[in-house]
Design a protein that fits this description.
about 260 residues; alpha/beta; 8 strands; globular; 8 helices; about 35% helix; eight-stranded parallel barrel
Length: about 260
C-alpha cells in the first residue's frame, strides 16, 4: 500500500502553516512534505512534526527569490555561491525534521546552453556530496514547461541520463506523475523504466492539478503499479484542493493511517 505524504504548502491551507501538521495528522496522514520551511525556525518546524507523530518525507532546498520568479540555482553558473549558501541554510531543517531526501531545483536556464548543462552537473554532484555524510538523498525533478516556462530540467530522459552517468549513490529522481504526463505521457512505462533510480513520487490530477480522483489518469491503477514495482518510498500529494482539503480526501480514505 502506498505511503502518502500531505504537501503542507498546498493542502490544509485553511489554517496557518505550523497548524497544518496537526490537521494532516488528524486526517490520517503519517507523513508530510512541503516546498520550503525557511520562513519558520527549524526548531518550530521540527517540534510540530514530532508533536503530531509525523515523518518528514521531503522538502526543497532554497530556491532564491521565489516571489520574483527564481526557481533554484543549480544550472546557473553565476549563482553557485548562492547554491552553496543554500545548502548551509537547509542543514538545520534537515537535522530538526529528520528528513531523508531534499529536492535540488535547477533554475531558469536553457538546456541548449552548454555552460548551464555543465553547471547543473557540477551543482548536482556538489550537493549530493555535501549531504552524503548526513545520509540524505538528493532528488532532481523534471518540471513541465506549462507550469514553469523556461525551467532547465524539463525532460525525464535528461534527468535519467544524468543520474545514470554520475553514478552517485545518494542522487535520485523525483518522479512527479503530474509533470510526467504533461511532458511525455506514457506514465506507467516510464515508471517501470525509471523505478530503479526513483527516490520520491508525487501526484495530482491532470490537467487541473487537483485531487488525484479523476481526469486523465487512473490513479488507483497507478497506486497498484507502484506496489507491483516494489516502490517503498513516499507519494507526495502535491495538489491544489478544489475546496476545503478535508472535503476532497475521499480518494485517500482507503489509505489513511498507513504507517511511514
Amino acid at each position: 500500500m502506498p505511503r502518502f505524504a500531505a504537501n503542507l504548502s498546498m493542502m490544509f491551507n485553511e489554517v496557518p502553516f505550523l497548524d497544518r501538521f496537526e490537521a494532516a495528522g488528524k486526517a490520517g496522514f503519517a507523513a508530510v512534505e512541503f516546498l520550503f520551511p525557511y520562513d519558520h525556525p527549524a526548531e518550530a518546524v521540527g517540534e510540530r512534526l514530532k508533536r503530531n507523530g509525523l515523518t518528514q518525507a521531503l522538502f526543497n532546498l532554497p530556491p532564491g527569490n521565489w516571489d520574483a520568479g527564481e526557481k533554484g540555482f543549480a544550472a546557473l553558473p553565476a549563482r553557485f555561491d548562492d547554491l552553496k549558501k543554500g545548502l548551509e541554510t537547509a542543514l538545520p531543517y534537515v537535522k530538526a525534521t529528520g528528513v531523508k531526501r531534499v529536492h535540488l531545483m535547477a533554475g531558469i536556464a536553457s538546456r541548449s546552453d552548454i555552460k548551464a548543462v555543465e553547471q547543473f552537473y557540477k551543482s548536482v554532484a556538489w550537493t549530493a556530496e555535501f549531504f552524503t555524510p548526513h545520509d540524505i538523498d538528493v532528488v532532481i525533478e523534471p518540471i513541465n514547461p506549462r507550469n514553469v516556462p523556461g525551467y532547465f530540467l524539463n525532460d525525464f530522459g535528461f534527468a535519467r541520463d544524468l543520474i545514470v552517468e554520475l553514478k552517485i549513490p545518494n542522487l535520485k529522481l523525483q518522479f512527479d506523475i503530474y509533470h510526467c504526463q504533461i511532458i511525455h505521457g506514457d506514465v506507467t512505462m516510464r515508471l517501470r523504466e525509471m523505478m530503479p533510480i526513483t527516490g520520491h513520487v508525487q501526484i495530482a490530477s491532470i490537467p487541473s492539478r487537483n485531487e488525484p480522483d479523476g481526469e486523465e489518469l487512473n490513479y488507483p491503477f497507478l497506486f497498484a503499479e507502484l506496489d507491483r514495482l516494489g516502490y517503498a518510498g513516499f507519494v507526495g500529494c502535491e495538489y491544489n484542493p478544489r475546496g476545503k482539503t478535508i472535503d476532497g480526501l475521499g480518494w485517500f480514505k482507503p489509505y489513511a493511517g498507513a504507517k511511514p
